[in-house]
């Protein structure tokens, strides 16, 4: 009996392709004006969707709401739900500075420089508040965790999909 390795290999490739294509899409994908981690599983927003100044910025399941949308204005990022700016002048915890939202005033704590100028690129977001500090997901990408400043070292926790507008 003659074996047909080509047909066997072709059948294996077809089965593999079918199984790969059967995987569901991610539960929630970020919109272009949301700040999210590269895996797009969580987005940054004020705690409990608050529109009040001084509230911590936390990670939440991406849902496309206004409080998860940010607009770049010069060097600042303005929350579309609250009209307040992403601010690196929150309380300090374990050697990190937590981010909050506050009235936009152009201070260095509200100025952020992306590591890449390519729109839609995954990039770090460096604070102009102090030296070499980047926005980082506190404790990894988990709902309820905050976002704080840490020394820029290029880890996945410091990579973001950010609005280019």
Unreliable runs, pLDDT <50, ≥5 residues?
6-29
Assigned CATH architecture = Trefoil
* Count of DSSP-assigned helices: 1
Q: How many extended strands?
A: 14
Radius of gyration: 20 Å
The oligomeric state of the chains shown is single chain
Binned strand content: 25-35%
CATH class category name: Mainly Beta
- Helices and strands: which structural class? mainly beta
**Helix percent band:** 10-25%
Tally of separate domains: 1
At CATH level 3, the topology is: Trefoil (Acidic Fibroblast Growth Factor, subunit A)
Largest sheet: 4 strands, antiparallel
Spatial shape: globular
Order of helices and strands: HEEEEEEEEEEEEEE
Arithmetic mean pLDDT: 81
| N-to-C span | 65 Å
């Amino acid at each position: 009996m003659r074996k047909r390795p080509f047909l066997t290999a072709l059948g294996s490739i077809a089965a593999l392709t079918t199984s790969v294509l059967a995987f569901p899409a991610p539960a929630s994908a970020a919109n272009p004006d949301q700040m999210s981690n590269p895996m797009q599983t969580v987005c940054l927003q004020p705690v409990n969707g608050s529109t009040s100044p001084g509230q911590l910025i936390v990670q939440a399941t991406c849902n496309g709401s206004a409080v998860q949308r940010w607009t770049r204005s010069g060097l600042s990022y303005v929350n579309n739900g609250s009209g307040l700016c992403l601010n690196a002048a929150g309380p300090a915890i374990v050697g990190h500075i937590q981010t909050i939202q506050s009235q936009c005033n152009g201070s260095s704590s509200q100025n952020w420089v992306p590591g890449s100028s390519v729109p839609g690129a995954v990039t770090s977001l460096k604070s102009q508040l102090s030296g070499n500090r980047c926005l980082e997901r506190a404790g990894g990408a988990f709902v309820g965790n905050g976002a704080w400043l840490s020394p820029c070292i290029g880890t996945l926790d410091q990579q973001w999909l950010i609005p280019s507008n």
